[in-house]
Amino acid sequence: MKIFVTGASGQLGYDVLNEALKRKFRAIGSDISFPKALPVNAPAANCEIDPSFVQLDITDRDAVMSAVSDLKPEVIIHCAAWTAVDDAEDEDNWARVYDINVKGTQNLANAAKAVDAKMIYLSTDYVFDGQDERPWQPDDKNYAPLSYYGKTKLEGELAVFETLEKCFIIRTSWVFGLNGKNFIKTMVDIGRKHDEVRVVNDQIGTPTYTYDLARLLVDMAETDKYGYYHAANEGEYISWYDYTCEIYRQAGIHTKVIPVSTEEYGLSVAARPYNSRLDRSKLIRAGFTPLPDWKNAVERYLREAKL
User: Fold this and answer.
1) CATH class for domain 2-181+207-233+276-292?
2) What is the pLDDT of residues 222-272, one digit of tens each?
3) Which is nearest to 54 in space by CA: 7, 102, 104, 21?
4) Which residue of the set 149, 228, 243, 248 is catalytic?
5) Which of 109, 84, 116, 85 is nearest to 169 (CA)?
6) What's the distance, CA 62 to chain centroid?
7) What is the three-state SS of the chain?
8) CA 298, 302, 305: angle at the middle one, nearest 5?
9) 149 catalytic, yes or no?
10) What's the CA gap between 133 and 117, in Å, rounded?
11) Partner residues linked to 227 by β-bridges
């Protein structure tokens, strides 16, 4: 099976490409620039630059069509996105955010259709309004995103769903991985420099380790069980405050964690959903192996990241 992965320099794309290569699939990653680090399972780098990576700007329609037509992948796993949520609220960035999250996604969906490839699109809990307390179901359609980032990711979902029959739309939340910045790295760094830290306790969800999510995405690529899914690590729904307390417990950090409301915290530019509970049970019903418990994921991540 030949798999084409966008956003391969990012947290998730890096792990997806690595997982596919580990399973001996013909996997090719892409990003707007070459990565600083190649996947650990990439072929020996003694031919060209690296046979598992191509440089591609997904907002360039002709370049996308040309690359996909040349490679003829059986599956496109689309991890590339503008993910800087607060920066996306700046009107000066709106055109670029839209180009990446909507037009770039449409370009890839069109290219997938042209070569009859499956497409796996990574979306977010931010497509919902974050109200109430019930977990969001994969097939819920009452979106009403609160942020420009959420609006563009929703439009990306619709571009894929309306263009392709052979598609998976995977919403996830609170992502962390080795190849990039994330909440755990930030909080560990803060905790080792300060005696106390204020953390929001009224936004509820579950973390997602990119290493675990990558395994699921490659599992999906081998099937035709298309549709909408929610994927995050298993375990109880928690607040960012609860999450921080567990990170510090496992890391042996004794910084005092003070719970505050989103209003009291007051530092975010973009509105965050209060309810990021994603119901993951459809994964089991479809025969996929769910992601491990989030506490286990944090433990493995801290060890791998040497934090």
Assistant:
1) alpha beta
2) 999 999 999 999 999 999 999 999 999 999 999 999 999 999 998 888 999
3) 7
4) 149
5) 109
6) 26
7) CEEEEECCCCHHHHHHHHHHHHCCCEEEEEECCCCCCCCCCCCCCCCCCCCCEEECCCCCHHHHHHHHHHHCCCEEEECCCCCCCCHHHCHHHHHHHHHHHHHHHHHHHHHHHHHCCEEEEEEEHHHCCCCCCCCECCCCCCCCCCCHHHHHHHHHHHHHHHHCCCEEEEEECCEECCCCCCHHHHHHHHHCCCCEEEEECCCEECCEEHHHHHHHHHHHHCCCCCEEEECCCECCCEEHHHHHHHHHHHHCCCCEEEEECHHHHCCCCCCCCCECCECCHHHHHCCCCCCCEHHHHHHHHHHHHCC
8) 130
9) yes
10) 37
11) 168
Instruction: Tell me the CA distances in angstroms from 95 to 67, 101, 122, 206, one per residue in order.
Output: 24, 10, 20, 31
Residue 268: its pLDDT value, please?
Answer: 83
Which conformational region is residue 174 in: left (phi greater than 0), alpha (psi within -120 to 50 degrees), or beta? left
**Contact yes or no for 79/100 (Cβ under 8 A):** no
Q: Report if pTM > 0.85.
A: yes
Cβ proximity of 183 and 176 under 8 Å: yes
The residue behind tokens 């990170």 is 247
> Roughly how many angstroms between the first and final C-alpha of the chain, as a whole number?
36
Joined together, the tokens standing for residue 99 give 């180009």
